[in-house]
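W.,

You were right to be curious about this one. When I first looked at the sequence I had no strong expectations either way, so I just let the prediction run and decided to look at it fresh. Below is the sequence, 304 residues in total, followed by the output.
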Amino acid sequence: MIYTLTLNPALDYTMQVPALRHDDINRSQGESLAGGGKGVNVSILLTRLGVPNTALGFAGGFTGRQLAEQLARQGVACDFTPIAGETRINVKIASQTEWDFNARGPVVGQTEWAALLARLDRLGPGDDLVLSGSAPAGLGVDAYAQILARLAPRQVRCTVDAAGELLTRALSYRPFLIKPNHHELGDLFGGLAQTDEQVAHYAARLQAMGARNVLVSRGEKGALLLDETGARHTVGVAPGKTVSTVGCGDSMVAGFLAGWRQTGDYAHALRLGAACGCATAYVQGLAGAKDVERALTFFSPTGE
């Protein structure tokens, strides 16, 4: 079973505003409300692909109940740990450019943290856990490292999609997969990660720090995977018009894990991951199974 963990999930409130003005009221031409957060997005995409999974994380208050209801309506199984605070609301404005306003979120106490860890103790060999996104106030930058250390004896295969110290502190526990984008990769090492060689160089450094497989999403340049055998795989993008980049990286993680669990083949996993990322970029919201199928036809069987 695949489990996703979103420590700081959200309700994403998206407004369609054709042209933003600074001297008058901006009126929306359409709104939508959807469950959000990186791990939540992974769970939604996996569900649409027909891959069994359960979304874990913290949820509290009216917004937390709304989040659970949103996911239930989409058929996403969830087992959130209740907290005293309110699940945050993020505001997305789709205009000439994308504007994202992410709330800080609630403070999580140590009792709530202990309750979540107890839920994770149910995982065991054959399970995947995807740890995605930021940690809420009350938890330190070693939150993911604590989880990986706790699960290591249980042989749970862990994926980490996070930035900064949340990621680097987890590397010594040898996560199965990490997925920085090229901006995050450059930020980690204080340099540029634009060319294939720069990306591969920094990916190799992350492997040396403990990551087994490093998948780097690169926007319009596609993606690069350095797998645990030392092989380098690259893939481009399917043609299409970008509607939104929100959730593309999460979709790539979902596709990669689905492909890996199907075949155990890294090249196939990369192709399916890339197809899911592209498919989400070309639709409003997250892609559906048919969107992914269409995108997948553009990738060669070699994954190069």
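Here's what jumped out at me. The first strand starts at residue 2 and ends at 6. And, maybe more interesting for your project: The chain has one domain: 2-7+38-56+107-296.

Coffee later to discuss?

I.
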